[in-house]
Amino acid sequence: MERFYREHNANIQRGVHELAEEATQLYEEARQEVAQFLKAGSPREIVFVRGTTEALNLLAWCLGRAVLHPGDEILLTEMEHHSNIVPWQWVAEVTGVRLQVARILDNGEIDCEDWERKLTDKTRIVTFPHASNVLGTLNPVRHLARLAHRFGAVVVVDGAQAAGHIPVDVQELECDFYAFSGHKALGPMGIGVLYGRWECLERLPPYQGGGGMIQAVFWDRTLVAPPPRRFEAGTPNVAGAVGLAVALQYLRSVGMDTIRSHEQKLIDYAQNQLSSLPGIRLVADPKERIAIVSFVVEGVHAHDVATILDREGVAVRAGHHCAMPLMNRLGFSGTVRASFALYNTFQEVDQLVLGLKKVWEIFGHG
Q: Which positions are catalytic?
């Protein structure tokens, strides 16, 4: 990114001078890298956005204009992040559609029977996370997508927690749209990706108007560009896209299967260690999961746990994790969440355990 700003900084797809052509080439090469990372059918199926949140807002409003009518239904799950709840609520209010919510089981998995029961001829859109940001649950995307497609529903997958941790093949998953954020995949903040099958992207109206997304503008009408430019109005985060491409190249060089294997060993070790500690309650136990473990410490607020762990050199997140409906379902005001990646070690899990023992001592339970 630093090299881009030093040597190639210019706006894209506007100028004919050398820097503009270099910047445009780097931006489009980044799009190709993302397409390869997700195993998309073509780079033109990749839209650059600010992150998963913007991608889901884009889809909510564009799909709302394209496919929703009063009386239709949108199906979500109890494990959604706020970013995959609020935009659909707003669109439902405007379009007169109804939100349906599929239950989760006590072990943190989607209740597939309830999911199937709530799919009807009224279902126009289904949306769910590839992996839960609270429970770590890895959902059966292809199975859920196939059930939804039987009813002609559009399938939207929130891939924020998965894309940087497990191999993702959007064609194999059979989803229509898939979104993730760069900073969840070792990339910079402020850049993200929306994948859409070409035939799905092509029928969507624009999200924003401005430079870069048009073919021609007249006083009485505007002719918009084809995807992906249609959804990239204004000056994009070119340096962010370049940085994301390098991060994804690095992940691919390590190997997503290798990363998945390492993280699985870490989470197995962490769960075994944490379950042996007194006063620790692990939240959810899905059969398939990513390297996230949420827990509560008996009698201690999650924020207090996180503060003490921070003093011991361990960074965790505490609270409702932008998933308040899920917390209500679980019966907690918040949890502590430890997240692991390819750079974490077993020694760091041991440090987490030592920190939790310190928590137990401080609160008089030692």
A: 322
